[in-house]
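Technical appendix A lists one of the benchmark inputs used to test multi-chain prediction within the project. The record comprises two sequence entries:
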Amino acid sequence: MNSGLPPLSLYNTLTRKEEPFEPLDGGNVRLYVCGPTVYDFAHIGNARPVIVFDLLFRLLRHVYGPKHVTYVRNITDVDDKINARAARDYPSLPLNEAIREVTEKTATQFAADAQALGALEPTYQPRATDFVLPRPDGKPDMVSLIEQLIARGHAYEAAGEVLFDTTSMPDYGRLSGRNLEDNLAGARVAVDTHKRNPADFVLWKQSSAQEPGWDSPWGRGRPGWHIECSAMSAAYLGETFDIHGGGLDLIFPHHENEIAQSRCAHGTREMARVWMHNGFLQVEGQKMSKSLGNFITINELLATDKFGGRIWHGEVLRLAMLMTHYREPIDFSVRRLEEAETKLRDWQRAAAGAETGEGDQPDASVVAELARDLNFHRASVALDVIAKKASRGQAEARHCLAATLRFLGFSLDSLVADDQGLEEPAHVVQAVAARLSALNDKDFATADRIRNELAEQRIALMDFKDPATGERRTRWELKR
RNA sequence: GGCCACGUGGCGGAGUGGUGACGCAGCGGAUUGCAAAUCCGUGAACCCCGGUUCAAUUCCGGGCGUGGCCUCCA
């Protein structure tokens, strides 16, 4: 099947190698990525996995067909940070209502951010709170998973909590390359006395009357940090699926513990076959942190002048992220954004006027580069070759460039707009004609005045020679 | 202290056991009344020290530097 399409290979954190990708079921390729905890605006570090795994989603859809790829990105709406934020921001509301305010507002903002970054919506975006208790539809849930872990001897109750027994799993720590002794040696927090082993982690914990909680076999409480992803991935993708993604910081303990929970609860040999992790961001050479004052949210970048004294388009941020291979660290800077903007504008200029339609296919060489572990940078070099041809006037290349840009998640007019983006282009057309007429009369003062007036409306004029007649003609674009 | 990444020209960044793509910026030129846009051309780099090898930026070891993780931070 799919002969003629490039072989796809992906780097697998589990094996520390790039491997050929073979889906378990080519008719349903399954991808899970850890989504946001909705307690505050997402920062630009959070934007990277959104963009990287969107690119993977698009590539998989291209290779296997849009109907044959399932992408799940969860929303974590139960967390102690959410509780704290709710109590702080809505002190007059009952906690549960306050929590709902916080999670609704933040989830909506996140969806808007993701869209601005050119990311497609995942197939499913489940919320953790819908998967705590057993469900009418019988999909896996956290309480049932925990019961299963206890029944199979992988978890135990202690001091009102349910804990995972890490010694019950012989290869616990394989993903992160850790063993239990490493964790012991590095422990900097006093070991909780009710844990049998220092590395054991919480599956369920008690809630006080003031905290959100669900009635469970172990009393009123709430789920531990990791169990939600085990439940929601199983609910939509099954016990074993193809790819699990997230940030590098999640390898340990989150993904390690997810693997432990899912495999032990289901009695399977693997949870996901391929584990992919994106690298981290620094900002202007320094770690991003609130205390350094270089903490920047996606929304601030898109809507305020906080970074570099101006706003930036979401697609510029997208390209700025993709310029560097997804596993490499990125030093985020104004200069990087400027370069991304220049590049995207060049591509859009070269694609201007292209006719696009439904059945358009992206360029094969670009796809082939992406198939090599999402090597976007090499793909962009291939795209530059096409853009060069397009800007020389090859209509076919222009068409291909436009289709490929769309495939990669970029629009054709985010930085450069032609008359479609303008309500009344007639006055521009008129002004351009008047200027050309003035130029013919060598009336440069008038011509420049018209050009300046248009510039104030963010309309830039560019003269060029008609290739056929040699006459001067003028092109214009709306700068955004 | 333990584990894991990363370190290529001013900047971004790919890649390779055999004298190092490409992009941005710079510089020179064409075009232009001037600009912008476009086109052509161009200089410049593989953290340090050992080892393996006929040959290392690429493999191995050590060092230095940066970053991440080390039990509730997605």
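The longest helix of chain A spans residues 95-116. The mean pLDDT of chain A is 89. Comparable benchmark entries are summarised in Table A2.
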